[in-house]
Prior knowledge:
The protein is α+β, with helices and mostly antiparallel strands and 69 residues long. The chain is 32% helix and 39% strand. The chain has a 4-stranded antiparallel beta sheet with strand order 3-1-2-4. The longest helix has 11 residues. The model has no long low-confidence stretch (mean pLDDT 97).
Amino acid sequence: MNIWQYKEEKETHLLVKLYKEDHGEGEFLGDLDEESIRKIILEIKPDINIDQAFGTLTYFGLLPILVVK
């Protein structure tokens, strides 16, 4: 699956958006397999429900992850 990643870091939070299509923002991470994508998601937010998060990305083509500092 082709994945693009957009990051916005502020004092209070980190917002990361993973996309399946190029939306004109972020960086192309490559054509990744499911295991690699799951690893990336868990690196951003270790306590996320990984099955739900991966399912959201697969179905909707977008996964926004908000990490409050």
